Amino acid sequence: MINMKPLQMVDLVGQYHKIRDEINLAIQQVLDSAAFINGAPVRQFAENLSRYLNVKHVIPCGNGTDALQIALMALDLKPGDEVIVPAFSYIASAEAAALLGLVPVFVDVDENTFNLDVNQLEAALSPKTKAIIPVHLFGQSCDMETVMAFAKKQELFVLEDNAQAIGSDFRFSSGICRKTGTIGHIGCLSFFPSKNLGAFGDGGAMLTNDDALAEKLRMIANHGQAKKYYHSLIGCNSRLDTLQAAILDVKLKHLDEYIAARQAAAERYFDLLKEVPEVILPNVEERSKHVFHQFTLQVPKEKRDALKQALQDAGVPSMIYYPVPLHRQQAFAGQCRISGELAVSEKLSETVLSLPMHTELTEEMQQRICNKIKEFMCK
Ligand SMILES: *Cc1c(COP(=O)(O)O)cnc(C)c1O
Question: pTM for the full model?
Answer without folding.
Answer: 0.97
